[in-house]
Write a structure and sequence with these properties.
- The structure is a single chain.
- By secondary structure, this protein is of the alpha/beta class.
- The chain has helices spanning 53-67, 92-111, 122-134, 150-158, 205-209, 217-231, 254-262, 282-290, 307-312, 319-332, 351-364, 391-414; strands spanning 2-5, 22-25, 31-35, 38-40, 43-49, 71-73, 82-87, 116-121, 140-142, 164-166, 187-191, 193-194, 213-214, 235-239, 269-273, 297-299, 337-344, 368-373, 420-431, 434-441, 446-449, 462-470, 475-484.
- It is 31% helix and 25% strand.
- Strand 5, helix 1 and strand 6 (71-73) form a beta-alpha-beta unit.
- It is globular and about 65 Å long.
- The relative contact order is 0.07.
- The site of iron/sulfur cluster has 10 residues, from helix 5.
Length: 490
């Protein structure tokens, strides 16, 4: 029998020398992992993620840890030995879908003895203990700050000590992690700051993700260099609930981090999300004008076009301030494309306040808006406000806004017909019985194109495309040049 230490604990700053999982190859050549006195044969995990990119990134991290415990991911619920949910507390819809799915698992567990069920993420952080009481088939719950301990929790459950909820906060001075990816793609999410100090009146995030804590710039730069050199990463997206507040706790800034990352050889494209308008500095705006690898897209949630609503939301900026940033960004980087989030029907939103948001759409000309009706989240300040607005009015306003925005998008997209873009091809799909490839431009627009031959494989190639037609939601293009796996620059 061969024994080798697993690579579970080589992170920057966590559990560096504490290698506990051991990989054994048994007499039949089968991989078995031991941890403590327990053996872990090959097993399958089925995981469902709800919510934002941060949650999808956390899922990737969970899967990477579980690999060290001999788990591989399955898309087939029937073959799972463990079921995990990574939950989101921000939107009502994601929340209800999660509760429905968790309830369904009762029967699934009855049919499959030994199935383990765990719930992670924001709902587990605030309601973990309650979930365990209400759903007897649930084994454990864990908050976002303890995902790096997932293997300990799985160990504990297999050891027979289940029915626990862990929602403790990371108390260390610095936020220190190493990015873990297992997907083999050239794109990676890099977590650079966690938590949020803003306390917008409608938002649950500060209560589920805690105070802001940034990673040190040098750690991130080293992390990204390794990903580029050893894992072929070419495009990164820096993540944080309030990403442009990065570094306040360490006297560092997002702009200076972007400047460092821009110099990494082999890295082609840098994106970041999600930004708060209050923290868009002049230094960051200037970076959009000067850095070669920085995406020409910025997602900048405005939430409302009415100053009185923004005040009730505790957003800390006015419409005039927001538009001032937009103007400066467009001056610094004329090709920049802006997208936003809008909450329709915030507490007691008047018709006049709603019309102010409609006016903002005209002025700002967003390339895309993620718009939702307001729904109160437990324990937030806005949930305690007396609200007289009906759901019917909210839905009418949302429909009206979305239709109006689609017209704006259509005009904007049609204005780029005839333009040439470099983009990374992310996959292909069937469009009306025809196979088309699709990529994402630096300015975050999806372009679909026909292959030169039916069998040409463009996966993860950089291509130049000419946009030939456009609708409100997508662009069609024609391939002009296939650069292969790396863009060639003139
Ligand atoms: S800045 Fe974003 S994450 Fe933070 S409280 Fe406001 S809406 Fe929530």
């Amino acid at each position: 029998m061969t024994v080798t230490p697993s690579e579970a604990h080589t992170g920057l700053g966590i559990r560096v020398s504490d290698v506990r999982e051991q990989v054994l190859i048994d007499d039949q050549g089968r991989k078995v992992v031991t941890m403590g006195d327990m053996e872990f044969p090959p097993r399958k995990v089925w995981i469902r993620t709800f919510g934002c990119q941060m949650n999808y990134h956390d899922t990737e991290r969970i899967l990477s840890h579980l690999q060290n415990l001999n788990f591989s991911q399955t898309q087939e619920l029937a073959e799972a030995d463990m079921v995990l949910f990574n939950t989101c507390a921000v939107r009502d819809l994601a929340n209800s879908k999660f509760y429905g799915k968790l309830a369904e698992m009762k029967q699934v567990k009855k049919n499959k003895g030994g199935l383990i069920i765990g719930v992670g993420g924001c709902v587990a952080q605030t309601e973990g203990k309650d979930l365990l009481k209400r759903y007897k088939h649930l084994d454990f719950a864990f908050g976002p700050d303890v995902i790096d301990c997932i293997n300990d929790m799985v160990y504990r459950t297999y050891a027979g000590d289940s029915k626990f909820a862990i929602n403790s906060w990371d108390r260390s001075d610095n936020f220190s992690i190493e990015t873990k990816i297992t997907h083999g793609m050239p794109q990676a999410f890099i977590n650079i700051i966690k938590g949020c100090d803003k306390y917008c009146s409608y938002c649950i995030v500060p209560y589920t993700r805690g105070k802001e804590k940034s990673r040190k710039m040098q750690e991130i730069v080293t992390d990204v260099k390794k990903l580029v050199e050893y894992q072929g990463i070419q495009e990164i997206t820096l993540l944080g609930q309030n990403v442009n507040s990065y570094g306040h706790d360490n006297n560092e800034t997002l702009a200076s981090l972007l400047g460092e990352l821009d110099q990494i050889q082999g890295l082609e494209l840098i994106r970041y999300t999600t930004s708060h308008p209050y923290d868009v500095s002049d230094e960051l705006i200037a970076a959009h004008g000067s850095l070669k690898k920085l995406s020409k897209h910025l997602h900048l949630p405005v939430q409302s076009g009415s100053n009185s609503v923004l005040e009730r939301m505790l957003r800390e900026y006015t419409v005039e301030h927001y538009m001032g940033i937009v103007d400066k960004l467009k001056r610094a980087q004329p090709e920049i494309v802006l997208t936003t989030d809008i909450i329709v029907g915030f507490v007691n939103e008047t018709d006049e306040e709603f019309q102010d948001t409609m006016k903002l759409l005209d002025v700002a000309q967003f390339d895309f808006t993620y718009s939702y009706v307001y729904s109160p989240r437990n324990n937030t300040r806005s949930a305690k406000m007396v609200d007289h607005l009906s759901d019917e009015v909210r839905s009418e306003r949302l429909q009206y806004l979305q239709k109006y925005q689609l017209d704006i998008q259509k005009r904007l997209r049609q204005s780029i017909v005839g333009e040439r873009f470099l983009m990374l091809v992310e996959g292909h799909g069937d469009q009306g019985g025809v196979k088309k490839w699709r990529g994402r431009t630096s300015c975050n627009r999806i372009v679909h194109f026909l292959p030169e031959t039916p069998t040409t494989d463009y996966q993860w190639h950089w291509v130049d495309v000419l946009v030939t037609s456009a609708t409100a939601l997508s662009c069609q293009g024609k391939i002009l040049l296939d650069h292969g796996r790396r863009p060639t620059r003139s």
